[in-house]
Structures are given as structure tokens and as C-alpha cells.
Amino acid sequence: MIQSGRNNAEQLSPEMLSKKLMEQSAQLKKENEELRKAHKELKTLFESINEVLYSVDMVSNKLLQVSAACEKVYGYTAADFFADGNLWQNVIHPDDKEISQQQVQLLNQGKQVVNQYRIIHKDKSVRWIENKITSTLDEKGRLIRLDGVTNDITDRKIAEKKLEESVSIMEATIESTADGILVADLNGKIIKFNKKFVELWHIPGEILETKDDNKAINYVLDQLADPEKFLSKLNELQNRPKEVSFDILEFKDGRIFERYSQPQLIYEECAGRVWSFRDITKRRNDGEALKESESQLALATKIAKLGHWEFDAIKGLFTFNDQFYSLFKTTAEKVGGYIMDPQRYSELFVFPDDRDFVNGEMVRTMGALEIGPNNKLEHRITYANGEIGWISVNFFLIKNDAGVTIKTFGVNQDITDHKKAEEALRLAQFTIENTTHAIYWIKSDGSFHMVNNAATQMLGFSFEELMQLNVPGIDPFYNKEVWDGFWQAIMNQKFMRLITKHIRKDGTLIDVQIDTHYFRFENMEMSCAFVSDITERKLHEELLQKSEANLEIKNNQLELKNKELEQFAYVASHDLQEPLRTISSFVELIQKQYKGKLDINADKYLSFIAQSSDRMKVLIKNLLDYSRIGAKKELEQVDCNQMMHEVLADLGAAINDANAEIHHNRLPVISGYPTEIKQLFQNLIINAVKFQKKGVAPQIKISAQRTKDTWEFSFQDNGIGIEKQHREKIFNIFQRLHTRSEYAGSGIGLSHCKKIVELHNGKIWVESVPNEGSTFNFTIQAN
């Protein structure tokens, strides 16, 4: 085959062979380009996904790779993780470190690990992550590599917490209602029921303990007068799972229940059904006794001022009385008479969202072959003035021999106030059971009449345990005389607030604040107490008091030291001037009398002494000026535009000599110390003019911009610039970066600037590029 290939190659002309090689080269180049493109796309994908992908060499314990998403999840860059091999462990929340350590054994077995734990983000916030780790073992079963994917699941954790809270609220609501509640799935399996349901249906505890749904259902059916009718309704709802249902259940023992059934929808799909049962036996018996005859109904309507109506099913027309229209805050004349068809009635008086329900219930009731003598319906109405209310509709039917409804009689009663009271009561119950404040209802002997859920959680006792205790039982410092006096004070003042201690079930003491309100209920004296656990607040208050006391001491010490330093600087600089003036005077006299009479070195030495004396004068003056900064503690409104105009006028000669150009934007009006602000501007401009490149005219740009709470000023120049290692040093007093022969000055100007800026609660810094220029920035509080 090789020989054959050679013969074929030899048969090719040089031109054809060259062409063939070029084609192969082009093909190879194309494939390489596609490989590079694929690699680039894979790298882009690796760097752009939200999950953190990483690999660790467990032999060398080194990070092999990590995606850029780590900065989004952890706040740290990939470079940070490569630089610090312990960073992975350091970011784990201290309380969750054991979670990751518990998985080591599984990883050593080559198993995949999925865990969730908290981390401390670089911005100090606490976040949740989910970590999926796959381990690789060598042929000897040793762990050699880890590959993992990390997701930020903080939002999911927050959502789960809210879901837990909503479930808790739902359970509290179910348990607080006066109705028996049963929740079942689509297959009829019991999911949840409340205590009232067990109470209404008299279900024995031994059946509940078996958790056998069939036993429970059979026990319920055995109590009904017509169980087959109820089972038929269940089958009907099974075929129409989204239907709302209402009917009456009659028991063998004479009891009567209202039964309401509502589908449980999740994302518009039915997941089960909620059943509500209410015992209306007494109400039903009372209603039957009240409506024994039509004449008695008319009398009751007149006495109770109920709206009365009749419906002729054959003609399809309503007839109403005056009281009916009064109930809707209108008259028959205003709406066109006493006779009306059902559609007109619905449009005028029934709230739009309730029309389908009302019409459906009326049609269902009238069409039923067997129906009780009395029926009830509650729905919302629209008054003539546009307001919304509630009515209760009680009605009974008259049927012919064929069982067809021919007439309906009914009365309407406005129950708006009752509904509002029910809603207020439900809201109050919901608030009481879900508030974070513990609430006690305390009787005069100190025993509990009632407590809410927050009270049991705060004290660690169950509701039943607290009912066996009393306030003295949880008050570790109880004294009967104190309690009696305490109760008398509550009676006299009606309201009282006190701070005391309570003892939890586990024996720990907590500080509590109690706000008590005295009232009488059914001839019983009682106090409603709102109780807050203030243990942590008390601890913070104590720490705050200690901190404030220490801070006051430190402030006093600092103020004293500052006064001492100011006095020392003033006295030192002032007292140094007198001997310095003497030295300068005698040097000047010696130079005048003996110049040229001594040798050349003596003249040189005297010149050096005179120059040093002059420099010392400048340093002392600058030191004195430095000590006086902020001496005048009166803030004024400073127009920086006017201040800049004055500074440029004062420095006009120096600016002209240097051929400098100075430009500034519109500057703000600030609250500050005028003398110090002027010195600040002056020093920064002199600095920019002085430190200039030879042969280059100074260009200085001054601007200010508003941030959230401050004004940020910038003085930009085109001078010699500053090396990075010297940018902090230049603000220290008497610090110089150049000799006096290069640039004159005492080295105190920028330290003046720093002190002035800090006097205004700001900060100053420099940004610079050597040989290109510097920008001095500082902030001044806006208010």
C-alpha cells in the first residue's frame, strides 16, 4: 500500500502535487479555525453561565479551574480563589461548616454529594448556596479530583420561608374558624381537618389514630339520614372538580348541617377540594317555627322590617313590597314599579361578581325534586347609591302535584353590619394569632383566661400548660402583696406599662415589657396584656449606656488633649520666634560689620545661618497657622464661586509669572469655615502652579459634583505627577519629595489641606500619573 501510494504520488505532476498540498493545507487551516472557534465558544459559555463550575486536584489540593460566576455568587473573583487556597472554607458561614465536612466520607467513596449551606458574601451579606459535587477515584480507590457546580439559592430559600409562613397562617385560620373544615385530594384522600370538624361529626379518637380514611368516611355516612344522596353528590363533584357546591345535610339524630364545598386550585388546576360544615340545627328549627304560615311570614316581615318578595315561576316575574325597596335604599317608583323580571332584578341589585352564583343557586333549588321547606342564600348587593352591601335571602317553595315549583316566597335582610363585624372579628383573630407580640388575657386572680400563639412560643410552654399556670407561675419574683397592689393599680388607671421578668419552661429568664388594659367582660374583671420580649433590647441598652459613658470619657480626654496640643503648638511657635529674631539680628549685624574682614568661609557660614533662620521663620509661621486651623467654630454659607474669585485675585502675580491657565465650572454654595476654605483653595492652586514641568505652561481645571450626601471637588493639573508610593506621604506635615533648590516651600501646605478637609468631615486623596499630572480630590458635606 505504501509503494502504491508512492507510485501514485510519482505519477502526479509537480503542479498537481503542489495544488493537492495547498488544498490539504487549506482544509487543515479551516479545521484548526473551527477548533479555535469551538474552544472560544466553550470558553465564553463557561465564563457566562450563572452557575459556578469548578474543579479541584485533590492530590495537590489545588484549584484547577473556576468560572467567572464565582464573583456573582461569592463576591470574590476567580483570581481571589486561585490566590487563597483556603478561601472556599473561609466563606462558609461558621454555623454551617459542619455541613460540608460531613460529606467528606461520601466523596471518598466516589459518591455524588448535594448539599446546601450559607456563605458570607464579600459584601458581608449572608447567602444560601446549593453545591453539587462529583468525585473521581483512581484505580486504587483514592480520591484524586472533585468537580462541582454551585448555585445561589438565596431567593429560593426566601420563597420557601414565605411558603412556610403562609402554610402556618392557613393552619391558624383553619383552626380558628367556627366551621368544621376538611381538605381532601382529587381521589378523596383526607389531607387536613380541624378540631371543629371532629367535634361536629363526633368522630372517636380511636378512628383518628388509625388514620384510615375509609373508616372515618363510613363513620360519617352512618350518621346521615340519606347517605346515598350525599354519595351521589360526591360522584357528581368528582366529574366536575372545579364546581362550587352547597347543600343541606340532615342527620338521623335530627341535626342539620350546611355543607359548602370549594375546589382547591393550584395554577388553575384542581388539586383537591375544601369542605366546610356548619351546624344550623337551632337556626333551622327557629326558622321553621317562625314561618308556619304565610300570614305569620307577613307579620314577621312587618315587625322586623324585612324586604318581602314573591316569584311566580309560571310567569317568570317577581313582586316586591315597599320594605324590599327600602332595603336597597330606593323606591318602587324610581325603578319602575313593584313587578320585575329576574334579569332586571339581577342587573339593578345583585353585585356583578355574585350574579352567576345567585342565579345558579335559584335555578338549582327550584329545579330539585326534593327540597327542604326553607332555603337560605347570602350574597352581595349594590345599593341605589352605588355602595356595596350584603343580604341574607330566606325563601321557601310551593310545588304542584308533579313536583314542579310554581311559586317562591322569600324575605331579604340586610346583614352588611353583621358581615363587617364578622370580617373585623376574623381580622382580629388572625391578627391576634399571627402577631409577634405575646397577648395574655388575665383574670383578677392572676390566672390566664386565654393566650395567643406568640405567648406559647415566647415562654416555651404549650397552650394547655399555660392554662394550668398563671402570671405568678411565670413570674420568678412573685409576691402576693405586690400582685394585689399591681392589680388594684390596673383597675384604677385602666392602662399601665411595666418592665419585669418571666421564666421560660427551660428555666431561662427573659426581660419583658407588659402593656395592660383593664376591662370587664360578662361580670368578670380582666386585663388584656400585650407582652414583648425585650431581653436583647435591655442587653443593647446596657451596652449602649456603657459605650456612651466610655465615649463621653474618651471625648473629654480627646478634647483636653486637643486643647493641650493647640496650646503647645501656639506657645512653642510663639516662644521660638523671639530667640530666632535675636539670632537673625546678630547675624545681620555681624554680616554688616565683618563682611570681607574675615576669611571667605566665615562669610559663607554666616550666609548659611541667615538662610536657615529665614526658613525657620517660615516653618514657625506655618506651624502657628496649622495650629489655628478651625479655631473659629462658626459655620457660614460659603459661595465657592466668590471664594475662587478672591483666591485668583490674591494669586494673580504668581499665576501670571507662570503663564498659568485656570478654568473652573460653576461651584456650589456650601456650609463651612470661610477662612479655612479660602486657604484650602489657595494651597491647592499654588501647589499645581509650583510643581510644573519645565517649559510647560500650567493647565489647571477645577470642578465640583454632587454625590448623595457630599460635594466632591477636583483640582486637576498637567504637572510632574506623583509616584504611587508617595501619594499618602505628601499629606504629612513637613514632608517633601524634592529639594528646596528644585521646588521652594516648607512641605506643610498639603497637611494644611488635609486638616481643613477633615475639619469639614470630609476626606482628601490624590490620583496621579508621573510626568502627566495629578488630580487632588476632596469631599465636603453637602449639609
List keywords for this structure.
783 residues, alpha+beta, five-stranded antiparallel β-sheet, 29 helices, 28 strands, disordered N terminus
SSE blueprint:
Elements: H1 2-11, H2 14-48, E1 52-57, E2 62-66, H3 70-74, H4 78-83, H5 87-90, H6 97-101, H7 104-108, E3 113-120, E4 126-137, E5 143-152, H8 154-176, E6 180-185, E7 190-193, H9 195-201, H10 205-210, H11 213-221, H12 227-239, E8 245-250, E9 256-266, E10 269-279, H13 281-290, H14 294-304, E11 307-312, E12 317-320, H15 322-327, H16 332-335, E13 339-340, H17 342-349, H18 355-367, E14 375-382, E15 388-399, E16 405-414, H19 416-434, E17 438-443, E18 448-451, H20 453-459, H21 463-468, H22 471-474, H23 480-493, E19 495-503, E20 509-521, E21 524-533, H24 535-594, H25 600-628, E22 636-639, H26 640-650, H27 652-657, E23 661-664, E24 669-672, H28 674-690, E25 699-706, E26 710-716, H29 749-759, E27 764-769, E28 773-781
Parallel strand pairs: 23-25
Antiparallel strand pairs: 1-2, 1-5, 3-4, 4-5, 6-7, 6-10, 8-9, 9-10, 11-12, 11-16, 12-13, 14-15, 15-16, 17-18, 17-21, 19-20, 20-21, 22-24, 25-26, 26-28, 27-28
